Protein 1
Amino acid sequence: MPAMTETETKPRLDPAVPMVSVRGVGKSFGANVVLRDIDLTVNKSEVVCLIGPSGSGKSTLLRCINFLEVYDRGEIRIEGKLVGYTEAAPRRQLSNRELRDLRRNVGMVFQQFNLWPHMTALENVAEALIQVRGMDKAAAVAHARRMLDRVGLAEKADSYPARLSGGQQQRVAIARVIAMEPHLILFDEPTSALDPELVGEVLQVMRDLAADGMTMVVVTHEMGFAANVADKVAFLDRGRIAAFGPPREVFHESGEPRLKQFLQTYHERNSF
Amino acid sequence: MKFSVIIDALPHLLGAAVTTVWISLLGVMLGQVIGVLVCVARQSGSRAADMAGGVYVSFFRGVPLLIQLLLIYYMLPLIGIDVPPLVAAIGALSLASGAYVSEIYRGALNGVPHGQSEAALALGFPAPTIWTRILLPQAFRISVPALVNELILLLKASSLISVVGVAELTRTSQTISASNYRPLEIYLAAGLIYLAINGALAAFGALVERRLQQG
C-alpha cells in the first residue's frame, strides 16, 4: 500500500518478542471475579482460539488485549509494549492519545459487526484510513476497494449495511480492519450472530487471513474452525485457562473434566 | 366577513410572515448549535459540565417562553446590556429551543448502539471524530421527526415575541386589526398563513426523513 510508508512508526518485528503476552492478568467487576491469573502467549502469525462456556471470561480477556476492557492485575504486552498502563510504577492508565497509538496495530472484529449504518460498505472501510491514518480521500477509497475485493465484496461497495446479509456485513467489517494493516486481529465471536448458512463465508475469509500469516486471537464456538485452523486452543472456565495447547491435544488428549463436559455438550448439540 | 379586507392586508401579512419564518429558522439553527453543544458537554464525563447543562435545560424547559422573553428583554438592560427587541426575541427562542434539542439528541444518542463508538475506538479514532463522524450523524437521523416537530412548535411559539414589539406575523395582525377593526378576517388570514408554513415544514421534514432512510 503506497500511502503507508511509515516504517519509522512500526516497531521492529523481532521474532523473539511474542505478539501478545499475557502474564498473571486478573479482572473483577465488583465482587465478581471474571479473570483469574491468566497467562497466555500468542506468537507472530499464530492463530489462537479461545473456547469455553459462556461467562467463562473469554470475551473479557479478548477485550482486555486492546484495553476496551480495563484489567486490574497482571500485565498484557503487545509486541513488548505494555497495554493500557505506563511502564513506571506506580502504573497509571494511558491517556486516550497513547491508547490510540497502541490500538493502531490491533484490529478487532465484533459479534454484532458494528458497521456504521449511515455509510456505504466502501465508506465504512475508507473512514478509518482517512480519519486515523490521515490518507487523502482518493487513496483511501482506492485502498478500501482493494480490501473489499479481498473479502469478495467488490460489487457491494456502494451498498449500505442494511442491504447486506449478516455474512456480507461481517466480511465488510473484516475488510475495515485489514485495511488498517494491523499486526494482530482480535475476533469476538465473529460468527455467533450469523444464520448457520452464512457462517462458512466468514470462516473462509478468516482462513485466508490465517494462511497469509496474520496473527489472530479468536473467541469462537466454531470447534471445527478451532480444530482445523488454530495453532493453539485455550479453554477458559470460570475465569481461568483450564487447558491450553495445540488443538489435537486440547480436543483429544486433555484430561480436564470441565473441558470434556464442554465438548460433550457441544457434540450433543451439533449432532442429529 | 369581508374578504376584500384580507386581500388588502395580504401584502403586509405575507411580509410579516417572512419575518416570522426567518426569525424561527434562525432560532432553530442557533438552538441546534446550543443543543448539540449542551448534549455533548453533558455526555463528556465532566460532572461540572453535566450539572451546568442540567440547570440550563431545566430552566429553559420549566419557565414559560413568554416569561423568558420578558426576563431577557427587561432584565438585561438592568445590568447594562441594552438588547434590541429582535435580538432578545431570537435569543430567547434559541435558548429555549436549545434546551429541547439537547434533550432530543440525548434520547437519540441512547438509541445508537454502544458498539458503534466501540468499533471506532478499536480502530483508533480520536474522541471528537467519533462524535462528528459516528455518533452525531446517527443521532441526527434518529431525531429528524422530533426536530421537525420542534421547528413547528418554535414557529408557533414565535408569535409570543409580538409582546416585545417585533413586527412578525402576530404583531402585524394585531396592528392591522386595530386600525381596520376587522380582527376576525385578519386573524383568520394569519392562522391560515401559519398553517401553510407549518404544512410546508412538515412536508420538507418528511422529504428529509425519506432521503436519510435510504441507507
Note: Chain A touches chain B at residues 66, 68, 96-97, 100-101, 103-104, 106-108, 110, 112, 114-119, 127-128, 131-132, 160-162, 173, 176-177, 180 (CB under 8 Å).
Protein 2
Amino acid sequence: MKKDLLALLGIILIIAVIINGTEIQSVDEYYLTHIDDITPESETVFITIRCDTILDNLDALDENLREFVPPDGVILPKTEYVLRNGDTVFDILDRAVRYNKIQMEYQGAKQNSFGSVYIQGINFLYEFSCGPLSGWMYRVDGEFPNYGCSKYELKDGQSIEWIYTCDLGRDVGAEWFNNLGGQNK
Amino acid sequence: MTKKIIALLLCALCFIGALTFPSFAAAGPVIETTLADNMTLSGSKKTFDVFARNSSGEKIKAVVKLNGETLTPTWDDTDKASYTLRFTKEGENIVTVSATSDGGKKTELTYHITYRKAAQGEAIGSAVWSVELFTVGGGYLVYPAEMPIYEGETAAEQLIRLLAENGYVGYYSGTPKQSFYLGYIADGASQNEKYDNYQKSSSPKAPKSLNIKTAVPEILKPYLKNTMTFFDESDYEKNWLGYIGEFVYTNGSGWMYSVNNLFPNVGFSDEYLSDGDVVRVQFTLGYGADIGGLGALGNGGFSGSGDMPESGYFKVADKDDLTALIAKARASGLLDRANVNKAYQNALSAAQTLDASQSAVDSALGALSNALFSPDSSSSSSSVSSSSSAASSVQSSASSSSSAATSVQSSASSSISSSVQSSSPVSSSESKSALEIAEGIINWKKTGSDSFLLNNSFLELAGSTAGDWYPIGLSRLGKDDNFGGYLAVLKDNVEARYKEQGKLSSAKATEWHRIALAVLAAGGDPTDFGVYNGQPIDLIADGVYDRGKTTSLGRQGINGWIWGLIALDSKRYEIPENAYYTREDIIKEILAQQLSDGGFALSGKNADPDITAMALQALSPYYNSEKRYSYTLKSTGEEVEKTVREVADGAVECLSELQLGTGDFKSWGTENVESTDQVLAALCCLGIDPLKDERFIKNGNTLLDGILKYKMSDGGFAHSFTFDPENPAAVPNSSNSMAGEQTLYTMAALWRFENNMRRLYDFRPEQSETLKERISLLESGISEITEDTDSETLERLLTAFYSLPENERSYVDGYWKLSDMARKKGIDIEQIAESAVVETFEENNGETEDVIFSESDKRTAEALPQKLTTEQYVTVTALLDKLERSKDFEGKARYLEKLTKAKAEIAAVQSEIDSINGEILEKLYPYDSITLSDKKTVDEIYARYEALSEYDRTKITGSDDLVKTKTKLDNILRGIIIAVVLGVIAIITAVLLILRIRRRRRKKEREMEELAQRYEDE
C-alpha cells in the first residue's frame, strides 16, 4: 500500500514537471539564450531610426527609393535593448536592424580612414540618396558626437537616434553647425 | 561659571572647526605622474614616477594598478615613488593611480596606454643621449645624439653602448640588468679590469681619452665652498687623471642622469626608455644641487657642511628640447651653413651655461629651429666642411655658364642658381625634412615584420578610402613598395564591384577618382584597368567625362567636380568629342561654387579650408591660362567672367585669412592636421613656396609648424587634440590613419615642390632637363620685371612662355607678373600666343621592366595549403596577376593552372560566406518567430558555418546569434525529449500501478471466493 502511494506521488511529480516546462539548461546556456531578455535589473538603452527630413525633400530623392520612406518617416520606433558590456552605438544599431530585418550597409572600421564604422545606408536610403548633403547621422541623448558610432560606448539608459539629414545636419539641429558659423568671423 | 566658559570654548571650537574644516575637506590628495594619457608604446616596459601629496603638501602613499593589478614601487622616498609597467597585453592597457588622504578624500587618475608589441631586440624608437661635464667646464663629453632603443634593453645597457661607441669605458657596480651604478667614466684605453672595485665595461674599438681641462664655473665655486666638506679644483689632475666620477673634486660629486628633465630615483638598470626620451648624463659636484637634481639622491644621502639650499644652488632651466635639437642639428649635415652654424654655436653656449635662464634657452632653441628650417643656401666661409661648399660653388658656376647662351640670362643668375641647388643633393635638407616626416609615418603605419607597408594585410584594403591614399603617398615620394600586389588586388576589387548595381558607387564619383590615382601611383593604366562585359574598364571615362550618362558628377557635391578634374588632369587626359562633359564644363562647375569670401565649401556661406584647398589643387593646372570663363555664381546668381587665376587668388587670400596663429587650420570647428595638409599641398600645386610665402606665416609659424603640432612620438599624426572626456573610447590625440595618409602625400607634394618635380597629382613622366632649364630661365627673366621693363623684353618673355607646350605652361611660376605688366603696357598677349611656335620636348619615359615570377614567388605558390580559405585571397590574387604578366618560363602553365584553380576555390569559399551571411539575416530574425519547425534550417546553417575554416568564420556576421538560436532550439528539443521520456515513465508506472492494484484486488477476490467456497464447503 505504501509503495502505491509512493508511485502515485512519483507520477504526480513527473506530471507537474512536464506541465511546468522542461527547459533544463546549463548556466552558460542560460546566459547565452537570455542575454537580450529585459529584466528589472538589466541595463538598457533605446534606439530610434527616422528619416522624416526626406518627407520635406521628396523632390531631391531618387525616384525608385520612394517606397522605402515610411509615411511618417519612422523606420524603427523607440525600442529598448539590453546593454551588453562595452556596447557601442554601432553594436546596438546592428542588433536592432538585424532583429527587425531592416536593411543596412556600412563600411567597416578598417575600410575607412576614420577608424570607425561608417553607416552608408539604412532601409536602402544611402548617403547622397536625397541630395549632395544627405546621409545618416546619430545623436545620443540629443547630442551629436563628432566621432564614429563604433567609438561611442553607451551607458545605461541612454537614448540613440539615427536620423537622416538632407542638409549636412542643419535640418536636424546639429549643434556644431553653429560653431562653424562662428568659425569664420 | 565654568560651564559658561566651557560652552564658550566649545562654541569657539565649533566656529574654528567650521572655518577650517571645509577648506581642509575640499582639498583631497594631489597626484602628478610622468605618464601621459593615450600614449602608444612599443617597449614592453615603461618606468614612471608618481608624486602624491595630501593637501598639506606631504607625500602620501599612492596605489598604482596596471589593468587592475597593483604594482609595487621600484623606489619610494619622501618625494616620489617610481614604478615600472610591464606590459603583457597588446592594445589598450589601463593604468590607474589613486591616493587617499585628508579624511577619506580620494583622487584617481586613469591613463590609457596602447602597447604595440615588439620582438626582443627590435628597435622600438630612439632616445637622445648626452654626457655632460658642464660643472667642471668640460662641455659635452658626448654630444647629444639619437640612440636606438631596443626592446627589453635597460638604460644601463644603452649607456654602455653609448660610451663604447664614443670611445670611452665605464666602471660600474651591479650589472646592466640589476642594481647598476656608474662609478666612473674613463679613457677608452684604460686597461684596469677594476677601478676602485668597480667593474669595467667593454673596451671601445676607437678609444679616446677624456682630455678634461678643469675650469669650474665661477658661479659654482662659492656654493661648493659653503656646502662641501671637500673641494679642490685641481683634484682631477692631481689624483684621478683618466677617470672621472664619484669623489673627484668634491665629496658630493658623481654621475647623475635625467630623463625628460626629471632625475629618476631608480638606477639606470631599472629605467626602461621610450621613444623620444631625452637622457642627459650629468656630472655633479654638489649632490645634484648644481644641475637641478638635488632631490634625486634622497635627503638621507646628503652630508654636507653649511646649509644646503632646499631647491639647489640656483634655478636650472629645462634644456631637453634644446638638447634634442642640438642632436638634430648635428645630424642634419647643415652645420656648414652660416646661419645654422651661428645658431648652433649659440645653442651650445646656452646649453652649457649652468644657470642659463629658461628664456635664454628657449630663444636659442627658437633661433636654431628657424635656421634649420631655412638654412642659408651656401656654406659659410668659416665652415669646417669644405667639400660641400666646393660642390655647391661648382654647381652655381656650371649653371651660370650654361645659361650664358640666351639673352635673358645675365639678369637671371641668382634665381637659376637657387633653382639648380634646390634639386641638388647638397642643399636638399629641406626636402629631407619632408622625407623624414614621411619616413616617420611610413614606419608608424607598417605592421608586422614586413619590409613593405603594402603587405598582405594592407592589401585587403585596396579600393577603400583607408587603403588607396597610402600607395599614392608612397609612390609620389619615390618609395619602393609592393605596388604590383596592390595593383592586382585593386583590379580584382574593381572588376568585382563593376558587376554590382551602381558599379563602384551609385552616388560617389570620387570612388573612381581615388582609385584612378591609386592605379597610376601603383604603375597601372586607369583607362584600361580590368575587364567588364568583355570591354576594358576605363575609370577616367566612366568616372569623369562620361559620368553624367549615369548620374551627375556633382551628385555628392563639389567634391565630385574637384576630384573629377584632378583625375582627368593626372595625365592631362584628352576628352573625346562625344563625351558627356567637356573640360570647360567641369572647370566652370567648380568656379561657379566660389563663395563671397573667396573660398569653397561643401555647403553654407563660409569657406571650408579643406574644400577650398582641394579646389585650388584641381584648378592649379589652369592658373597660368588667360582663358576667361563665363558662369553664374551659385551663391548670388550673379553672372561673372573670370580667369582661373582671379578665382584662385581670391581663394588663396581666403585661406591666408583662415590660418590660425599656430600655423594650422580649423574645419567644422575643430583644429586639425588634415586641413593644414590640404592647404600646404594646394600651395605646392600652385607653385607658391608654402614655407616662405608671407601670407602663410603667422606669429612665425609656418604651415609645416602647424602640421608638426600634430606629430606623435610614434611617427604618426593625430587628427586633432580635441578630446571628449565623456567618451574615452574615442581617442583624438593618438595617431590616426587619415591624418597619416594626408600628411604623407602632403610631404610628397612638398618634397616634389622643393626638388622641382612634377606636382603631386601630375603623374606624367618628369620633365626633361632641357625643359626644366628653359622654364627656370624664363622664371628668372620674369622675376626681374619691374615697372621700367621695356615692352620688347616683355614680348620676348611672352614668346618664350607661349613656345612652351601648353600643358607645361602651368609650371612657370610667376607668370602672372609678366601677364599683368604686359597688359599694363598694352601688349596683345593673345596675338603673341597665337604666333608663337610651340616647341616639342622629349619625354622622360621610364622603361618598363620585364616581370619575373621569382623563385620565392614559386615557393609561395607551392606552400599554399590544401584547404584554401579567404585568408589566402590576397596572396593568390597578387601571385596570379604577376604570373600572367611574367615572361615565359618552364612550368609556367602548371603554376597558371594551380593558381587559377586556387583563385576559383577561394571565390567559392567567399560566395559560401556571403550566402551564409544572407541566410542568417533572412532566416534567423525576428527571434520570437523562431520555432522548432525552423530547427532543420538553423542546423543546416550551423553545419555550413562549422564547415568553414576558423579564419573564414570570423567573416560571418551574427555568428553569435546563430549559436544562440541553435542553443535555444537544441534546448527546446531536449526539453521535449525529456518531457516525452518522463511522460512515458509516468504512463508505465501508472499502468504498472493499475495492474498491481487490479492484481491485488483479483487476488483478494479470489481469496474471498476461496474463503466463501471453504465456508460453503464447511
Note: Chain A touches chain B through 55 residues (CB under 8 Å).
